[in-house]
Amino acid sequence: MEQVLASLTSHRSVLGYMLVSRGQPVTIIRHSGVVFEGEQGRRYAHAVARIVESVQTGLEEDEVRFMRIRTRRHELMISPDERYLLAVLHDPAV
């Protein structure tokens, strides 16, 4: 896992990542990047958990494996697992 996370942060476009628990309460297990620190990081963690939960609830017969959410400035890539969520934020313009 260390090698994968180090590989993620080595890309110029990656602004940060966070590994979040799927249980209640939603907990940031590990993060990198200023964008995921403090209160802003907690808001991102809760938003990512709610987004994944909503999508999986809507897709009753299928399991979400990977999600990409693009905004004007950033792209958020989410990889859900049974126990964890990995979210990577990057700047697609770089």
Automatic annotation (TrEMBL):
Transmembrane segments: none annotated. InterPro entries: Roadblock/LAMTOR2_dom. PANTHER family: DYNEIN LIGHT CHAIN ROADBLOCK. Pfam families: Robl_LC7. The lineage of its organism: Eukaryota, Fungi, Dikarya, Basidiomycota, Agaricomycotina. Residues 1-90 form the Roadblock/LAMTOR2 domain. This is Roadblock/LAMTOR2 domain-containing protein. Signal peptide: none annotated. It comes from Phlebiopsis gigantea (strain 11061_1 CR5-6) (White-rot fungus). Belongs to the GAMAD family.
